[in-house]
Design a protein that fits this description.
Elements (H helix, E strand, L loop, with lengths): L3 H11 L4 E7 L5 H11 L5 E5 L10 H12 L4 H12 L7 E5 L1 H7 L1 H11 L3 E4 L8 H9 L3 E2 L1 E3 L5 H10 L4 E4 L13 H14 L5 E4 L15 E4 L1 H12 L4 H16 L1
Parallel strand pairs: 1-2, 1-9, 2-3, 3-4, 4-5, 6-7, 7-8
Helix pairs in contact: 2-4, 2-11, 3-10, 4-6, 10-11
Length: 266
């Protein structure tokens, strides 16, 4: 049986467009608003990543760190992310959910308990930023046994031989980090070079669904639309922060931004 993630990519392929993947932090600005945001952007995204807030991230830039700090300050607990996903997956137009975060939180929660709750609420995939291949082999196998995608990460510095091994062990989606930076950094690599690197990955196994993350904004998304998928995160977190500063409703602002991003990616 095909996963929700695989079906989402097949739909996009038939429509001749990249998958648009959103990222927000769970419970930012609070649990209720997180759910409202997910519901409001569902018409424009194909997959939705939700990050669990972490106090000492290694890959997140200032925008996502600010979102995480806000969520933690508001009393975030790991059970909250599962509650958000559970309610969201009951909505009519819900999209595949990918949980994203750091292994420390999964370890403290307990791998088996974490995967059991992922399965229970309907999460489709997991990205674990600080659990690289081959150290992730055992956990990735546990995920596969639960029919949950463990999403492997590739970077510009990944050697071709290592890429081959990671691609071989990957599930239904692979995440290519476009540049050596934390999230939200200015795109310091030309889109042509990103796509050149991306196509090298695709040449290893054209059947794998490979998406591009880092540096994807309303200004860069059109130049990378020949890829299979594009992840937008820091822009959304920044929008939440600015909306709160201006005392605007972040739900409406994010809906408008995703509408524009979807159109620019076509």
């Amino acid at each position: 049986m095909k996963s929700e993630i695989q079906l989402a990519f097949e739909k996009c392929r038939k429509e001749n467009r990249p998958a648009l993947i959103s990222y927000i932090v769970a419970s930012d600005p609070n649990k209720k608003k997180s759910l409202e945001i997910l519901k409001s952007i569902s018409d424009y995204v194909d997959l939705a990543e939700i990050g669990f807030p972490f106090s000492t991230p290694i890959g997140d830039g200032s925008e996502i760190q600010t979102s995480s700090f806000r969520a933690i300050k508001n009393g975030f607990k790991m059970k909250d992310i599962f509650e958000i996903v559970r309610h969201y997956k009951k909505t009519k137009n819900s999209k595949p959910i990918i949980l994203m975060g750091y292994y420390n939180m999964i370890f403290n929660y307990g791998e088996d308990n974490f995967l059991k709750d992922c399965k229970k609420v309907g999460a489709s995939g997991i990205i674990c930023v600080d659990l690289p291949w081959p150290e992730n082999k055992n956990f990735a196998k546990k995920c596969k046994n639960k029919s949950i995608n463990f999403i492997q990460l590739l970077a510009p510095t990944t050697t071709r031989e290592r890429m081959k091994r990671i691609m071989k062990d990957s599930h239904d989606m692979v995440y290519y980090i476009s540049m050596l930076s934390t999230t939200g950094g200015r795109l310091n690599v030309k889109p042509k070079q990103i796509l050149k690197n991306y196509n090298k990955i695709k040449s290893i196994n054209s059947k794998k669904n490979v998406v591009i993350g880092f540096g994807i904004t309303d200004k860069t998304i059109a130049s990378l639309r020949s890829s299979q998928g594009l992840v937008v995160g820091s822009l959304l977190c920044k929008t939440i922060t600015n909306s709160l500063k201006m005392r605007h409703n972040p739900v409406k602002k994010l809906k408008h931004i995703l509408y524009n991003l979807k159109n620019k990616s076509l």
